[in-house]
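R.M. (postdoc): so does anyone remember the format we settled on? I'll just put the structure tokens first.
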């Protein structure tokens, strides 16, 4: 789960919990208050009825019933019952309703003086009235229609308010979480665009005061140190390779000169031939290192023109066959271009020729018959060059590493090479905004594919 979603979820849960707790507390307090208020009303009615029945001689039972009916109009199923000490009913506020009561309830009232209870949906209060000659037990019960209606309306209001509040909380949580983390998303986009070629690019440091700005500042500091380290490394390799070229060239000349004086001694001649071979290898490694070190230098100043990849491939083929006449290369189209511009790319001819030369050389070198096929294909956006061989192939464990400098596959040891060509090729293709991929199975051959955007 993304941090933005986690923050929005946590914020929503916290606010939703607060709203639920608040709604439950409000509803519970309102419910208790309604019940207590209703009990008080019933208790006052019970006392008033008993007082009028006992203390006011001018009011008889029929008149008292009329008074009760007029004072309990807001209640449903209301009734007031008065019992004597023998549990005989001496007064009832209603005549047309069935009067039900529990004798045990009357005894409980006599013991506790006052009780409040419920029976179904009705609330009941009972009290012992002993201000007259005989203690009387008074029961008053009713259904609080209006109080319960108000409580139900309050519950519905709280429920809808809770749902709307949670919905707004989720929406606002997502909005504010996304808005708060937008600078981090912006930094993430900038970081994803930084590669070894543009370590000098810096992140936007914003106001330089908050935590995100401090993160950007610290990251820029790390980038600066990495850039310095890369520059020192490239400078060292470049200068070292350049400085080695002169003594190696002199060494080669001296070895060739010495070979002329060793014609009469076969053993010494073999030694000088081995020295010449090793010197050539050293010169080749030095040149490759120098090219590798300079492959990213002055990229912005690299001259590019519109070149046709078929022409570059044929130039690379001619140069390779001049150096290795035994090689066999077949160049063909996998599909014919729909437009003459589909094989035109914006690039540096010499660098692209170096890529094709390396791939063709490897394909022929690692094939038993020293044969390779080169196929061109295009689509609406890209043009492709595939170099296919039926050689030794590359093991799956080696494939992720073959573009690393000086790495050689485990089955390539018997063949000459330094493990630099593919690394250089990948960097050149990367400079041109393309991709270099490989599909291979051990002992079944390999297919290297160069993908470039055509004009």
């Amino acid at each position: 789960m993304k941090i933005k979603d986690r923050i929005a979820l946590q914020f929503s849960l916290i606010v939703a919990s607060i709203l639920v707790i608040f709604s439950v507390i409000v509803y519970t307090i309102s419910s208790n208050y309604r019940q207590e208020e209703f009990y008080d009303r019933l208790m006052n009615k019970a006392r008033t009825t008993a007082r009028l029945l006992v203390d006011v001689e001018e009011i008889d039972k029929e008149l008292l019933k009329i008074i009760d009916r007029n004072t309990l109009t807001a209640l449903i199923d209301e009734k007031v019952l008065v019992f004597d000490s023998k549990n005989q009913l001496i007064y009832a506020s209603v005549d047309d309703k069935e009067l039900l009561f529990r004798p045990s309830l009357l005894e409980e009232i006599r013991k506790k003086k006052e009780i409040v209870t419920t029976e179904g949906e009705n609330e009941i209060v009972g009290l012992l009235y002993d201000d007259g000659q005989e203690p009387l037990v008074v029961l008053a019960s009713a259904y609080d229609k209006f109080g319960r209606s108000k409580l139900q309306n309050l519950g519905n209001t709280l429920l809808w308010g809770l749902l709307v509040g949670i919905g707004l909380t989720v929406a606002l949580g997502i909005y504010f979480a996304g808005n708060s983390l937008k600078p981090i998303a912006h930094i993430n986009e900038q970081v994803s665009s930084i590669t070894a070629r543009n370590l000098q690019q810096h992140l936007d440091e914003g106001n330089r005061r908050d935590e995100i700005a401090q993160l950007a500042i610290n990251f820029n500091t790390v980038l600066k140190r990495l850039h310095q380290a890369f520059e020192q490394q490239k400078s060292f390799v470049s200068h070292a390779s350049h400085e080695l070229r002169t003594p190696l060239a002199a060494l080669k000349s001296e070895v060739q000169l010495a070979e002329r004086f060793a014609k009469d001694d076969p053993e010494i001649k073999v030694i000088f031939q081995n020295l010449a071979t090793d010197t050539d290898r050293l010169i080749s490694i030095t040149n490759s290192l120098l090219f590798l070190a300079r492959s990213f230098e002055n990229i912005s100043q690299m001259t590019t023109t519109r070149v046709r990849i078929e022409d570059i491939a044929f130039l690379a083929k001619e140069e390779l066959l001049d150096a290795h006449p035994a090689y066999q290369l077949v160049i063909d189209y996998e599909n014919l271009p729909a437009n003459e511009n589909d094989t035109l790319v914006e690039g540096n001819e010499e660098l692209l020729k170096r890529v094709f030369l390396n791939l063709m050389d490897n394909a022929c070198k690692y094939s038993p018959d020293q044969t390779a096929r080169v196929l061109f294909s295009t689509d609406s956006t890209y043009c492709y060059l595939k170099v296919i061989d039926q050689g030794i192939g590359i093991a799956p464990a080696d494939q992720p590493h073959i573009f690393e400098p000086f790495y050689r596959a485990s089955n390539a040891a018997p063949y000459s090479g330094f493990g630099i060509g593919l690394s250089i090729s990948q960097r050149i293709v990367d400079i041109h905004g393309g991709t270099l991929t490989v599909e291979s199975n051990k002992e079944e051959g390999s297919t290297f594919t160069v993908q470039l955007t055509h004009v």
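R.M.: ...and that's the designed sequence above, right after the tokens. Also worth knowing: Residues 3-55 form the longest helix (53 residues). DSSP finds ten helices and twelve strands in the chain.
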